[in-house]
Amino acid sequence: MRRRVVITGLGLICGVGNTTQEVWDQLCAGVSGVGSITGFDTTDYPVTFAAEVKNFDVLQFIDKKESRKMGRFIHLAIAATQEAMQQSGLVITPEIEERVGVFIGSGIGGFEVIEREHNNLLAGGPRKISPFFIPATIVNMAAGHVSIRYGAKGPISATATACATSANSIGDSFRMIQHGEADVMIAGGTEAVVTGLTVGGFSAMRALSTRNDDPKAASRPFDKDRDGFVLGEGAGILILEELEFAKARGAKILGEVIGYGMSADAYHMTGIAPEGAGAQRSMRAALKDAGIAPEQVGYVNAHATSTPAGDGNESRAIELVFGEHALSHTLKVSSTKSMTGHLLGAAGGLEAGITAMALLNQKLPPTINLGTPGEDCRLDYVPNQSIEHSFDVALSNSFGFGGINASLIMRRWTE
């Protein structure tokens, strides 16, 4: 018999807020975190805006000397983990340290450090490269620093599956606990790549919205005038525990993870398969894993990034998986990327946390900037205003370049 896995802590940081409660309140108020980029000069760039984390003081979490040895993605992961751990009330003692693991991923890692050190190389030669360049940059160091900080000596890994990264981190952690490899997992993702090279690269792909005259309206999932995604940054960390372990220490349970599915499109490097065929398989796998019927799901936090092809194909995939339950608008769907932008490898962690908050509060965050849905978008996307909603089960989708799909299913905690 598989063990049950519950959520006891959440740590969320993104462009709309630096704490879980602030993020939740701002999302429910329909506030956009998108604005002009402040981290570098955008004069020659075709895109000049993003959803940057604002007023973040790393010295609240890490001393100055140590912080200089880390990329910003590590800073954000440590901050989000601190909040999640504090909420969970978990203290890792020698008695349990080998049963606590860390799976924190990142799609790209310390890109701003790579850019800086490359400039140092060009300007002064190899002797000008920082000795901390590599450990500040590589994807696994967010997980490594969290493990060291809290003394978690169980399983550790760092998923890097593009925009599915942290959904895979959470799903794989769920599996570890289910099958007895750990009792607790610190799981999620982090990303901080609002940099010149990243914005330039995505612009060259024509993947980003170019609404420089109205940044807050630029991320518009499912809208007929959507023209690309908005880059975001942040972190989303969940504390997952085996149910009886959590109960034994008197933890407050925020929700339960009950299903995880993943699939490959095997179709295109950056495009999504027609009718979201891979997304369909991922959602169906998650439903099968959870042992529930599609009609039991009350809300889908969609991956929907505001791209012309992606949103329509995901919407069609939801139609085909959920049938009349979706087409009748009984099933509610929203994309919080309309406010947070797209956090790439951190998106799934942030959105899993948002989905858990939706279940906990029985309220759905909206899809803002939705005027007229596209012809290929026929569902209820909770347009522009949050709503009260009574539901027990929710699904969160995350899809990445390379045709990687991941779906998580959570249940409201009522025991």
Give the topology, please.
Elements: E1 5-13, H1 20-28, E2 35-36, E3 49-50, H2 64-67, H3 72-88, E4 100-105, H4 111-124, H5 133-137, H6 141-150, E5 156-157, H7 165-178, E6 184-191, H8 196-204, E7 234-242, H9 243-248, E8 255-264, H10 277-290, E9 299-301, H11 308-322, H12 324-327, E10 332-334, H13 337-340, H14 347-361, E11 363-364, E12 387-388, E13 393-400, E14 404-411
Parallel strand pairs: 4-5, 4-6, 9-10, 9-13
Antiparallel strand pairs: 1-7, 1-8, 2-3, 6-7, 8-14, 11-12, 13-14
Helix pairs in contact: 3-6, 7-14, 10-11
Can you give a write-up of this model?
The protein is of the alpha/beta class and 415 residues long. The protein has two domains: 5-248, 3-Layer(aba) Sandwich (Peroxisomal Thiolase, Chain A, domain 1); 259-411, Thiolase/Chalcone synthase (Peroxisomal Thiolase, Chain A, domain 1, 3-Layer(aba) Sandwich). Helix content is 34%, strand content 18%. The protein contains 14 helices and 14 strands. It has a ten-stranded mixed sheet with strand order 5-4-6-7-1-8-14-13-9-10, with helices on both faces. The longest helix has 17 residues, at 72-88. The protein is globular, with a radius of gyration of 20 Å. The two termini are 20 Å apart. The mean pLDDT is 97.
Summed up:
The protein has 415 residues and is α/β, with parallel strands linked by helices. Helix content is 34%, strand content 18%.
Main attributes of the structure:
alpha/beta; Peroxisomal Thiolase, Chain A, domain 1; 10-stranded mixed sheet; 14 strands; 415 residues; 2 domains; single chain; globular
